[in-house]
Amino acid sequence: MQFMFAALKLGIGDMIYYLVIFAILLLAVKHFAWGPVTDMMEKRRKKITDDIEQAESNRKKAEILANQREAELKDSKQEATQILSTAKSNAEKTKQSIINDADSEAAAIRKKANADAVQAKKDALNEARDQVADLSVAIAEKVIAKSLSAEDQKDLVDQFIKGLND
């Protein structure tokens, strides 16, 4: 038993020695290694947090830019539609203007053609009257065998034409 007691004393002494050495090592580790390791871990935690915040911020910016691009694309489509609509409207107005101008020109041509036809008819009637007058005079000269004065000829032609109109 004594042996056990001696062994137990030796074990307690060693144990105290190991505890003291462990405490000294723990203090040395805390002083020389734990501080720098915790600082490094804190810096790493902060960097990861900052990276996550930066990524979130970038994602929000990308989302905002995507929404802006989508809105601009929608506006571009609306603008293109409006431009096409305006172009169609302008083309329709131009078409109508050309048609109106062509109708006006055609009406003017028809009016001039009618006026020319009326004038040609008058000219033809006047020429026919002159020819009838000449023929009448020639026939009258042969029938009467005498020559009429210009005044007499005119009176005879006028009487003849009045007779044709009645």
UniProtKB/TrEMBL annotation:
It is a single-pass membrane protein. It holds the Pfam family ATP-synt_B. Residues 38-79 form a coiled coil. It comes from the Bacteria. It is found in: Cell membrane; Endomembrane system. Gene3D superfamilies: 6.10.250.1580. Its main location: membrane. The keyword Transport applies. The chain crosses the membrane at residues 15-37. The keyword Transmembrane applies. CDD domains: ATP-synt_Fo_b. Keywords: ATP synthesis, Cell membrane, CF(0), Coiled coil, Hydrogen ion transport, Ion transport, Membrane, Transmembrane, Transmembrane helix, Transport. PANTHER family: ATP SYNTHASE SUBUNIT B, ATP SYNTHASE SUBUNIT B', CHLOROPLASTIC. Component of the F(0) channel, it forms part of the peripheral stalk, linking F(1) to F(0). F(1)F(0) ATP synthase produces ATP from ADP in the presence of a proton or sodium gradient. F-type ATPases consist of two structural domains, F(1) containing the extramembraneous catalytic core and F(0) containing the membrane proton channel, linked together by a central stalk and a peripheral stalk. During catalysis, ATP synthesis in the catalytic domain of F(1) is coupled via a rotary mechanism of the central stalk subunits to proton translocation. Belongs to the ATPase B chain family. F-type ATPases have 2 components, F(1) - the catalytic core - and F(0) - the membrane proton channel. F(1) has five subunits: alpha(3), beta(3), gamma(1), delta(1), epsilon(1). F(0) has three main subunits: a(1), b(2) and c(10-14). The alpha and beta chains form an alternating ring which encloses part of the gamma chain. F(1) is attached to F(0) by a central stalk formed by the gamma and epsilon chains, while a peripheral stalk is formed by the delta and b chains. This is ATP synthase subunit b. It comes from Lactobacillus colini.
